[in-house]
Specification:
alpha+beta
């Protein structure tokens, strides 16, 4: 039984800090010495189908845009700002699933058993190969 492919809409945010503000006494203009730091990724929508991604992505992005403000801020000391959206596989095969499938297959070969792999094992390798761009 193969795993159905689904996708998620993720928002990326940048973060920067005003290092010059550390010595600011609060009077006059705040000195400016911004340094880009890390950022965050926020999951907005999960469980999208390929059809959703191909046909309805703009609608989902518009919905998520209404929530962006909850993750952005700015003051004299630091700020977090929105960079953009990207789509990822939400249920990509994890390492453990791939290793389990390989180990089951390899164990049968080592024991000289007649091996007829489950279709799911081939599906895992096929999906992994596609993700890695092998074919």
């Amino acid at each position: 039984m193969s795993k159905a492919i689904s996708f998620k809409l993720v928002g990326s945010f940048g973060y920067r800090e005003n290092y010059a503000a550390h010595c600011w006494d609060g009077f006059g203009d705040c000195p400016q010495g911004w340094k880009n730091k890390s950022g965050d990724e926020v999951l907005f929508i999960d469980g999208l189908t390929l059809q959703n991604v191909q046909e309805d992505l703009d609608d989902f992005e518009n919905i998520a845009m209404q929530l962006i403000g909850n993750h952005c801020w700015s003051d004299e000391y630091s700020e977090q700002y929105f960079l953009g959206f990207h789509v990822e596989r939400s249920n990509a095969w994890n390492k453990e699933e791939i290793v389990d499938a390989y180990c089951d297959w390899y164990e049968d070969i080592e024991n000289d058993e007649i091996f007829t792999p489950e279709p799911d094992v081939f599906n895992k390798y096929e999906l992994l190969a596609e993700e890695l761009g092998l074919y």
